[in-house]
Amino acid sequence: MLQRDDQLSLAEISRQIGVTASTINDRKRRLLAEGVISGFHGRVAPEALGLNLLAFVFVGWSNPKVEAALIRKVKASPAVLECHHVTGAWNYLLKVRIGTTRDLERFLAEVVKTVSGVERTETVIVLSSVKETWRSTSQNRRFYAARRLNARTIRALRPRASSSVSTSLCCGEEPARR
Questions:
Q1: pLDDT at 3
Q2: Domain locations in the chain?
Q3: φ, ψ dihedrals at 153, nearest 5°
């Protein structure tokens, strides 16, 4: 609930889930103390600030000493929203929010390519976003764990009667042909 609207009052949360406001407050404090909730933040629409361009920049090098210098530059740049160490042909993936393509070109020239040892970059400009979320949930884990069941396990769990169609559909498998 707090991920959807962190402005909900304790009384409103209490009413919706049926526990006292003091219990909600205790749980909220505990989640903060345990690091489950990392903070409460206002989400600003980037377009309202003139930050109309979203891009992902892959950065690569072969000398491991380059990493520290890149990280320093990235941390100092307000244009970089996220920085991820990745597998594959690239070392890092940056999520960049900036005003225009000219600003992006300047960012690449003044931030990324000034790091000695950076050998290559690839930039992908986002045309539109179908989904962008900040929410995490334990349901994500359960959703993907359920899909790890192999076909043999699903067949073993399937009832013998004709209700196999509903079982197979819920497990993401084609209905059995009889």
A1: 64
A2: 1-43, 46-125, 138-170
A3: -65, -40
| d(C-alpha 59, C-alpha 56), whole Å | 10
Residue of higher predicted confidence among 13 and 122 = 122
User: What is the arithmetic mean of pLDDT over 119-141?
Assistant: 83
Q: From 3.50.50.60, 1.10.150.20, 2.40.50.140, 1.10.10.10, which CATH number describes the 1-43 domain?
A: 1.10.10.10
Contact indicator for 52, 103 with CB cutoff of 8 Å: no
Q: What fold characterizes domain 46-125?
A: Alpha-Beta Plaits (3.30.70)
Instruction: Say if residue 128 is exposed, middle or buried (CB neighbours under 10 Å; 0-12, 13-18, 19+).
Output: exposed
| CA–CA separation, 146 and 137 (whole Å) | 15
Predicted pLDDT at 140: 55
Closest alpha carbon to 58 in 134, 118, 132, 130: 118
Which amino acid type is present at position 174?
A: E
pTM (predicted TM-score): 0.66
Six token digits for residue 76: 């100092």
Length of the chain: 178
Q: What is the mean pLDDT of residues 150-159?
A: 50
What is the per-residue pLDDT for 55? 98
Q: Is the dihedral of CA 104, 91, 39, 25 positive or negative?
A: positive
